[in-house]
Every structure is written in C-alpha cells, then in structure tokens.
Write a structure and sequence with these properties.
single chain; mainly beta
Length: 103
C-alpha cells in the first residue's frame, strides 16, 4: 500500500501483452505509461483505499474469450527497491446482460 499509487486494468485481444510477458518470464513485463498495445477496453481503475463497486446484476461487464487482462500499475517512488503483490478479484454470473455499461 505504501508504494502503490493506482492500477489500471487494460484489455488486450492482440496477444502483444502475452508475448511481452513471455519474454520476461511469463507473468509480467516492465513498461512505462504505454503498455505496448492499444487496449480494446478498460475495467474500473483501482487505488488504495477506494471501495470497489459491484455492477447491477443485469449490467455485467462482459469479458470475451481470448482477452488478456493487463494490470498497469503506477507506483510512488521511495528511492529504494520495493515489492508489491497486486491481486485482481472477479465475481462471475451466468445471467446474460440486458443492458450495456454505456447508455
């Protein structure tokens, strides 16, 4: 919490993020502000202390097969090496959406 500023979940369908991660050991890759691909969507951003919001049951965010979720983290500098272990949680439903997120 002391170094995490915020995280932006990006959606990639190109496979670019997966290839970048593969070149760096599999689960991650270093980068600056540009993730190396053009996202096809975003999930709500996270910042320490922010309470997540559950979407209405008839308005879920739809993740498609083959999408990669890339969590782009931004950190506060401390002047020394730090460790962070971000986690992402999902709630799934079998109920198809009846309305979209943007109206």
């Amino acid at each position: 919490r002391k170094v995490a500023h915020h995280g932006v979940p990006l959606l990639d369908v190109t496979g670019v993020a997966r290839r970048h991660a593969g070149r760096h050991g599999g689960g991650h890759y270093p980068g600056a502000a540009f993730p190396g691909f053009i996202p096809v969507g975003f999930l709500p951003a996270y910042a320490p202390g922010v309470v997540t919001r559950e979407l209405p049951a008839d308005q879920p965010f739809v993740l498609r097969r083959g999408m990669d979720l890339v969590l782009q983290m931004h950190y506060h500098p401390t002047g020394r090496e730090e460790e962070d272990q971000p986690e992402v949680g999902f709630y799934f439903t079998d109920t198809p959406p009846t309305r979209g997120l943007v109206g």
